[in-house]
Amino acid sequence: MTQSQEDYAVTQRVLVNDALYKRIAKTVTAMTLLKEADPELKQQLASDLRAYRLMLTKLKLQKSMNAQEVEKLNAQAGEASQETERLQQTTAELEAQLAEARRIQQQKKQYTDLTSELLRPYKVEVTLTREKEPSAIKEEEKAGVRGEEEEEEETAPMPAVASRSHTPQTEDSPRRHGDEDETEEADNDDDDEDVEMKDEDADNSMDIDDEDEEITVPEYETYNEIINAHLFRTRAEAAQLNQELEQDIADLKVTNSQYEATWQQRRHRFLEIIASLHTFQGDIQTEKAEQERRAAEREEEEKKRQEEDDNADDNDGENGNGDE
After folding, report:
1. For a pLDDT cut of 90, what percent of the chain falls above it?
2. Structural domains of the chain, ranges and CATH numbers in brackets
3. Which terminus of the chain, N or C, has less C-beta within 10 A?
């Protein structure tokens, strides 16, 4: 409500009608100036006072109605304020829950990163072990085979060759180059056996690698999958909780805006009622003033007519006396 509207409302609420008050004051002044009481002035003053009392009664009734309406609207405003406070408190609680959920989500993310950092060295170690084990085993097997060959060469007895070397040569004995051929064939057989042993050792080493791979790697992959599944589930639950909290906050904001809109509508309606009451009050005052003006005009016309009749009677009496 602007300042001009407030001034107009205050002016309309004044109980004294200026026109009626001035007329009453004029009548009272005229009565005080007369030496004798004038019945017409008394009647006019009584009529003005009755109109004034009627106006006061109407204004008092209107004032009581306005007071009841104001109390009702104040009660509604108090209820709306309490509901708004409750909504604000609920909104604050939901915002606190949302902040707590975000904090928990951040901690879970940090825990996930820390877990990944802690498990990464183990993964690298397993990978390097899987890459290095075959070559190391092969080198150890080769070294072991060489050592066995050297020990066999050092400890292996040579009876046939020694007997032939110490046996005296005769005409019936075989030639020495035949003995050399037999020695070469024995060496070739030993080499074949060594190659077969190396192949078997290599196959065994591959089997060992396969067994290690089957035992260690699936355990690590299963543990990692379990951690990832748990973290994914907790993240999904946190995301769902955040979404629900955001939806609740949005609903509360919509409800709060609806309450505010309802309060504004009621306040606008209250102002319209006050304005209509002021207009009704002005119409009543205008109508009353118009009725009083018409009554005064009728009284003046009757007074003039009565004076004319009196003058006519006086003239008739004077004419009759002159004729006599």
Report:
1. 1
2. 21-109+212-307 (1.10.287)
3. C
